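#onboarding

Welcome to the new folks! Below is a worked example of what a typical request in this channel looks like: someone posts a single protein sequence, and someone else replies with the predicted structure as tokens. Don't worry about understanding the tokens yet, we'll cover that in week two.

Example request:
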Amino acid sequence: MSLTADEVNKIAHLARLGIDKQDITSYTKDLSGMLDLMTRMSELNTDDVEPMAHPMDQSQRLRADVVAEPNNREKFQAIAPQVEAGLYLVPKVIE
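Example response:
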């Protein structure tokens, strides 16, 4: 699918992009190439292709979900200006 310079200008206007006049021909060529690639890819038969999450068929290494720090909640709330029912109280800033 080949785009014209007018179509590229229209796309740029809709996307609110500013394109210099001297760059329109290169944008036209590049966008047309991308659309041609997408057209060719949509024509491929992918019926026997199994969906995958990663192209390398690798598993993600995860670290163990263990507590690494002690619970210091009581210690921190002891030095807070105002606390109620385990929550920090702060002044109202929005009316």
